[in-house]
TrEMBL record:
Binds 1 zinc ion per subunit. It comes from Gongylonema pulchrum. The active site is at E74. PROSITE patterns: ASTACIN, CUB. Residues 1-176 form the Peptidase M12A domain. Pfam families: Astacin. Zn(2+) binds at H73, H77, H83. This is Zinc metalloproteinase.
């Protein structure tokens, strides 16, 4: 009998148990108990979608599957999760490049309908652990998936851990009756079925109602920044994890106000898929996974609301320098206006010297 990696499987199970009301009970495979999930060392990583009501369900965890995120991915299938790019609304977020898919794997990209997928009101998540990466099942080495917002191309395919929305869907499916009272959670949070007196919050937030930035490393400095018409600077370098919240007070701001972000200096680990060293910017829905950058300096970004989140995951060689300010709606109406802001209103930054550079160089 070929033995599976029990450490990896236990870590994947623990990841789900710590985040949901679901409990997995280990039993001897000799017992005639059904339904039963049996982990095997098959040919690759795979599982059917949905738990069997009768009989034994096999989940394959081969040598290349022994990471927390991959094991959690396969257990996600057992719990009822399809691949994220199989959602009925995927065409609003990604383009499937069918001509680049290896012929024998075309079935892996079939789109489901509302009859087979219930999203429980949770939006499409490009950072889901259930999402394929850009080169999945490629027959020619070219991308099989392209994000419609190109800033998210390195977000898709992560297998580090379950995303907030992966967990949210399963909690809504299995745990909605755990808490009698529902708390007024902010920023897409919801009443935590593990502790009904608090909210379960998206990664950058903490507090009882998700009202605070989640504390990070000691070097992060101030986590909450208030944007106005003046240009401000946010810098971070070295090892650490920081969750920066940049917002405009609605009491003093017009509803049309947005936040403009310009990366003046940027260095993170070069990788086809952003791993442990990257910056994530949430400039759309702050509760959903944002655009991840690790090998190319981001273009200027404009938030869709009065709030933007910058998440720093750095190693010893990582750093960024970000200039930001509030924008009027008229300044965001055209790309020409946004470009003029970056050229005229910002001074390039020399990260080695830590002082403004002497030349104005448009990018």
């Amino acid at each position: 009998m070929i033995l599976v990696n029990e450490t990896a499987i236990s870590a994947g199970i623990k990841h789900w148990e710590e985040s949901t009301c679901i409990i997995f009970q280990r039993v001897s495979p000799e017992l005639k108990i059904t339904p039963l999930i049996e982990f095997i060392k098959g040919d690759g990583c795979y599982s059917n979608v949905g738990a069997y009501r009768h009989g034994r369900q096999y989940v394959s965890i081969d040598e290349g599957c022994n990471t927390l995120g991959t094991v959690a991915h396969e257990i996600g299938h057992v719990l009822g999760l399809f691949h994220e790019q199989a959602r009925f609304d995927r065409d609003n977020y990604v383009q499937v490049v069918h001509t680049n898919i290896a012929y024998e794997y075309a079935g892996q990209f079939v789109k489901q309908s509302l009859d087979t997928i219930n999203p429980f009101g949770v939006d499409y998540d490009l950072g889901s652990a259930m999402h394929y990466d850009q080169f999945a099942f490629s027959g020619n080495g070219l991308p099989t998936l392209r994000t419609l917002d190109h800033n998210y191309q390195l977000t898709i395919g992560q297998r580090k851990q379950l995303s907030f929305n992966d967990i949210k869907k399963i909690n809504f499916a299995y745990c909605n009756r755990t808490c009698i009272l529902q708390l007024p959670c902010q920023r897409g949070g919801y009443t935590d079925p593990k502790l009904c007196s608090r909210c379960r919050c998206p990664e950058p937030f903490s507090g009882i109602f998700c009202e605070l930035p989640r504390p990070g490393s000691s070097l992060c400095g101030t986590l909450e920044h208030h944007a106005n018409e003046a240009i401000q600077t946010l810098t971070m370098a070295g090892v650490g994890e920081c969750n920066y919240v940049i917002k405009i007070f609605m009491l003093q701001a017009k509803p049309s106000k947005r936040i403009y972000l310009l990366f003046d200096a940027f260095k993170f680990d070069s990788s086809v898929l952003c791993g442990d060293s990257f910056t994530e910017v949430r400039y759309k829905d702050v509760s959903n996974t944002g655009a991840r950058f690790c090998n190319v300096k981001p273009e200027p970004l404009v938030s869709e609301t009065n709030e933007a989140i910058v998440m720093y995951h750095g190693d010893a060689l990582s750093y960024f320098v970000i200039r930001f300010r509030a924008l009027e709606q008229s300044e965001t109406d055209s790309k020409t206006a946004v470009k003029s802001i970056s050229v005229l209103n910002f001074i390039p930054y020399d990260v080695d010297l830590g002082i403004p550079a002497t030349k104005l160089v448009p990018t």
